[in-house]
Amino acid sequence: MKLKSIIISALVVLVGSSCKESYFDINTNPNTLPTASPSFVFTNAVNVTSTNMLGYNEIGSYWAGQWTQGNGYIINTAQFAYNFTDGDFNYWDGIYDNLSDYEYVIQNADANNQKYFKGPAKIMKAMVYQQLVDMYGNVPFSDALKGTASLAPKFDDQKTIYDNLVKLIDEAQTDMKANPFASAFANADLVFRGNLTKWAQFGNSLKMRILIRQSKVPGKEAFIKSEIGKIIAEGSGFITGEEVGIGGSGFYLATAGKLNPVYDRWGYDANGAKRALNNYPRITEFLINSLKATGDTLRMKRIAYANSGENGNAPGTSTLKEVSANYRGTPFGVSSGYLPANTVPLGPSLIVKGEFNRPYIIMTAAEVQFLLAEAKQRYADVALPNTAQQYFEEGIKQSFRVLGAGAANADAYKGSGVVNYDWEASTDKLAAIAIQKWIALNNFSGFEAWAEYRRTNLPVTPQSIQIIGETKRPLRLFYPNTENGSNGANVKAQGTVDVFTTRLFWDVD
User: Fold this and answer.
1) Computed from CA positions of residues 205, 207, 211, 214, in that sequence, does the dihedral angle turn out positive or negative?
2) Cβ–Cβ < 8 Å for 92, 155
3) How far apart (Å, rounded) are the C-alpha atoms in residues 213 and 494?
4) How many helical (H) and strand (E) elements, i.e. helices and strands, does the chain have?
5) pLDDT tens for residues 174-192?
6) Are residues 269 and 235 both part of a single domain?
7) What is the C-alpha separation between 382 and 232, in angstroms, rounded?
8) Cα–Cα dist 291/299, whole Å
9) Which 3 state secondary structure label does DSSP give 503?
10) InterPro entries attached here (predicted)?
11) Which H helix or E strand runs over 120?
12) First vs last C-alpha separation in the chain
């Protein structure tokens, strides 16, 4: 766990008090790190989670077939020809550093009379750990986050970790019911500003994500149904009609280093100058053509700006007229012929000039509705109050809303006969749910889209143009060389990892 800023502050205080006799107390260990308030650590940890997610949401958006690379750059073969090694895509180190902060909060909240941070810290720990498992499979869990007490932690079985994450969320719910949030510390919570009801709903929504991810694993049905029953009995419900976001207004500022991370990377700097990387991610030809083919142009125009991008003099609108003919996607992995001026970039649902203080979204209400739709469709006897159709249609509606396409416009698909949009017209209900979830995750949760793509194999997206005559696609990441260097025996114990054939436990087909 890195607490550099806190340590520096503590040293300043130490220097300022150096004339006091107590400073020379020989019973004080000068090598002991200063302690930090769990509230400070929690605030920092949540912010770090958002910046970490930026990286793996990007790679997920590519490998889920939603984004590709603009041709103003040399093609990235690690991303689009899958020529990567254990030196690429190291999200491991940053994630474990982040998890250590959440563990610090959990272990120190009681002693600092800040018990109300334990539940939220456990929920965030569960979310981040699930993402880690969904990248690497078996990882250190029970022996991890112990500092010098366990410098070479053993790896746990990924299935067992998933079960423990369900238990961790249950613990969080118990903690939050027992420890009302102190209003004086509400601003330390960058997610819900101390609203534990919202935290409970997020916990239930996250638990549903963990359960549904395992829905195709043989022998898991009884467990999943039982746990859904526990969610219902808990009584708080799910995130509805709003997103789970980090930061937002009052936290992100128009100052270098303090902007929303998405805005800062692919949008504009603190002075409103367009970033060079604004031309890098492009929306895929497959996505644009799919939306056009189903008449889903309202969402298309929010997922992407028209060719050549945003009109800087009229933020939130395109330079070109926003008609379908001016929306051209980029084939996945193509290296020439699709320059920024004639292809679509990330749209106003994600980036608008001047809107540097949007929250960083970590879960959408649309995703939650599609999770509920799948749960009800698979397990009709669970006591969820609505039908699978109602959850499905609400998922589309929430997707329209969060994209800025007008929730009411989603109703046009009811009875339309458009397969995978109109419930009655869709013979494969689970496929319709999967495809609509894939659309809804665009621009917000790329890593989740990649995980679901691996689980469902939907939609059937084109292979990268960089791959000729092969069907291989990444199913996971290599363990990073940093872990192999410091914990090599335990890495080796996981066996040979082939990123194209070594499946995670929930990726059964």
Assistant:
1) positive
2) no
3) 22
4) 17, 4
5) 999 999 999 999 999 999 9
6) no
7) 9
8) 8
9) coil
10) SusD-like_2 (IPR041662), TPR-like_helical_dom_sf (IPR011990)
11) helix 118-136
12) 38
Q: Assess whether 169 and 280 both reside in one domain.
A: no
Question: For the stretch 127-147, what's the b/e string if a residue is b when 16 or more beta carbons lie within 10 angstroms of its beta carbon?
Answer: bbbbbbbbbbbbbbbeebbee
Rounded Cα gap, residues 393 and 432, in angstroms: 11
User: Which amino acid is located at 170 in the chain?
Assistant: D
Output the domain CATH number for residue 51. 1.25.40.390
| 473 CA to centre of own chain | 21
Q: From CA 281, how far away is CA 287, in angstroms rounded? A: 13
Distance, in Å, from the CA atom of 320 to the CA atom of 224, rounded to the nearest integer, reads 49
Task: Supply the range of the domain harboring residue 206.
Answer: 1-63+90-248
477 falls within a domain: no
Looking at the structure, do residues 310 and 237 belong to the same domain, yes or no? no
Number of domains in the chain: 2
pLDDT mean by block of 10 residues, the chain; 509 residues: 40 36 42 78 98 98 98 97 98 98 98 98 99 98 96 98 98 98 97 98 98 98 98 98 95 97 98 97 98 98 98 98 98 97 98 98 98 98 98 98 98 98 98 98 98 98 96 97 98 98 98
Q: Which of 249, 241, 228 is nearest to 170 (CA)?
A: 228
Same domain flag for 274 and 131: no
pTM for this one? 0.93
Buried b (16+ CB within 10 A) or exposed e, 30-44: eeeeeebbbbebbbb
Which region, left, alpha or beta, applies to residue 108 given φ > 0 means left and ψ of -120 to 50 means alpha?
alpha
Distance CA(434)–CA(388), nearest Å, equals 13
Residue 386 tokens, joined = 């609505």
Query: What are the φ and ψ backbone dihedral angles of 72, each rounded to 5 degrees?
Result: -85, 5
Do both 122 and 163 map to the same domain? yes
What Cα–Cα distance (Å) separates residue 207 from each residue in 39, 163, 246, 358? 24, 10, 19, 26
| Residue whose pair of structure tokens reads 């090599």 in the numeric block | 488
Longest dimension (CA), the chain: 82
Contacts of 242 (CB under 8 A, 6+ apart): 365
> Token pair for residue 258?
């303090």
Note the residue count of the chain.
509
The answer to whether residues 215 and 236 belong to one domain is yes
Q: Indicate whether 12 and 43 sit together in one domain.
A: yes
26 and 164 part of one domain: yes
HEC-encoded secondary structure of 402-421: HHCCCHHHHHHHCCCCCCCC
Cα–Cα nearest to 439, from 418, 463, 424: 418
Contact between residue 207 and residue 169 where contact means Cβ atoms under 8 Å apart: yes
> Kindly report the CA angle at 242 between 236 and 244, in degrees rounded to 5?
80
Q: How far apart are CA 50 and CA 361, in angstroms?
A: 8
Euclidean distance between CA atoms 71 and 281, whole angstroms: 10
Task: Round to whole Å and give the CA distance between 507 and 500.
Answer: 12
For residue 10, being part of any structural domain is answered with yes
Distance CA 357, CA 362 (A): 15
